[in-house]
Amino acid sequence: MHIILLSNRLASTRTLTITPYVAATAALVFLALAFSMSFLFSWVGIRFNLPFAETLVVSVQQEQTQKTEEFVRDNLNVMAAKLGQMQAQLLQLDSLGERISALSGVKVPEKAVDGKGSKGGQGGPLILSTQPLSPLELQRAVDRLEQSVEQRSDTLTVLESQLMERRIKSSLLPSIYPISGDYVGSSFGSRLDPIAGVSAFHEGVDFVADPGTQVVASAGGVVISAEYHAQYGNLIEIDHGNEFSTRYAHLSKILVSPGQVVKRGQKIAASGNTGRSTGPHLHFEVRFKGVAQNPARFLHSGAQLALQTPNAPAVAR
Fold this sequence. Notes:
Blueprint: E1 2-7, E2 12-17, H1 20-47, H2 51-104, H3 135-171, E3 183-186, E4 189-192, E5 199-202, E6 205-208, E7 214-216, E8 221-229, E9 233-241, E10 244-254, E11 261-262, E12 267-271, E13 281-288, E14 291-293, H4 295-301, H5 303-308
Antiparallel strand pairs: 1-2, 3-6, 4-5, 6-13, 7-12, 8-9, 8-11, 9-10, 10-12, 10-13, 13-14
Helix pairs in contact: 1-2, 2-3
């Protein structure tokens, strides 16, 4: 910037150049003088007890304090509202856990809020407070909510593990029908032998079905036998663990081999009329510790599950 100075007496001119450095220095000096004057003004007003100066300083301080309090109060209100929403969601989580527990039949012990084994009753009329929560009260509420969330998380984790354990056990129990048969030709228990014509004990259930009808594993397990037997004809025996096993007899075709791992509902054979048999059907046995059990006890309890299992056969009637 160039400034031209004119002189009438000397009839001459002078040029003064102002650089950015000079301008910045001048601005800093001006701000410093203004700040100093303001500080001096405030000090003089307080030192010499000038009312108008002291009032001006107090007014500015009060305005700044009021703005700060309003900002903090607004933030506390927002945080309190969020806390209320989280508490409502926590109640919904509790309700969901109770419904899952009721539907599954799995009871999970609840941890007490007070640590003494009982949550205790709560209630009373709703009276909204007009006083906002203080930062300390809000922090305590957040800490309590965090503890409650941890407890609910532990409870749901236990519930999940128990449901998973039950699901695994149910998948290893022979609870789905092994064939889509027309009807049950012979039930478990005492009967008149169809060949010898004498009273005998029938250790399984006979499902009447056309030859070649698909036979599936009633539960997951390992094939321990897949061979021809003089009495059973083509026979498959599967070990399901926990000392449970199943037998599938009079088959026309065997589709698995010993040592093979099979899944629940997996096709393992086709029905037939081999061995000691008077017609096409599937002879199905459930054994526990080698002793024949009534298959109906397992099939009836798993009928609904069998209908919902993908690729599962229709319930035999």
